[in-house]
């Protein structure tokens, strides 16, 4: 991959992240933030959301980490995410003779591996036993793209089961 392609991919991912960061933006009508009833100023999430790290259960409290749920769409709807936020992966261990499938969590090294669901180049973060109970926690400690996928069935859970998503956490704002 050439440096121009890497830059183009980075710009695309950053633009996507920025576009979804202000998804609740809107004019007036209910924003009574001390500026005369809204008057065209955008509404944002409450300020406290931007200052303290949060724990986010991947897929939400009801869904967890499971086959067939679109996690890429979930990540877009539940952003923005920030550096030092914690992602919690919860999933059930398969029982002896049940039809449940085992799951794992892999961090993939790049966009190409993510798009192809090539888990062979990824790093296993959690195996099929780590998601029980309180789940596996991953802290996004750096400002970088994070690509996550289920590594079971040689990438089938990632590809067909939609068990993949990426996050580019934002830097937290300073309290002025």
Automatic annotation (TrEMBL):
Signal peptide stretch: 1-21
Phytocyanin domain location: 54-171
Top-rank taxon: Eukaryota
TM regions (residue ranges): none
UniProt KW keywords: Signal
MF (Gene Ontology): electron transfer activity
Protein name: Phytocyanin domain-containing protein
Lineage: Eukaryota, Viridiplantae, Streptophyta, Embryophyta, Tracheophyta
């Amino acid at each position: 991959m050439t440096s121009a392609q890497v830059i183009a991919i980075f710009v695309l991912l950053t633009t996507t992240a920025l576009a979804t960061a202000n998804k609740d933006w809107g004019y007036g009508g209910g924003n009574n933030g001390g500026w005369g009833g809204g008057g065209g100023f955008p509404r944002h999430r409450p300020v406290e959301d931007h200052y303290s790290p949060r724990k986010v259960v991947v897929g939400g409290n009801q869904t967890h980490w499971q086959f067939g749920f679109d996690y890429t769409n979930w990540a877009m709807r539940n952003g923005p995410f920030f550096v030092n936020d914690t992602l919690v992966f919860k999933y059930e261990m398969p029982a002896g003779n049940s039809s449940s499938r085992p799951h794992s969590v892999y961090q993939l090294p790049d966009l190409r591996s993510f798009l192809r669901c090539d888990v062979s180049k990824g790093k296993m973060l959690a195996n099929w036993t780590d998601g029980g109970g309180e789940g596996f926690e991953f802290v996004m400690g750096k400002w970088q793209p994070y690509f996550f996928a289920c590594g079971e069935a040689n990438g089938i859970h990632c590809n067909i089961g939609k068990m993949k998503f990426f996050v580019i956490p934002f830097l937290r704002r300073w309290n002025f």
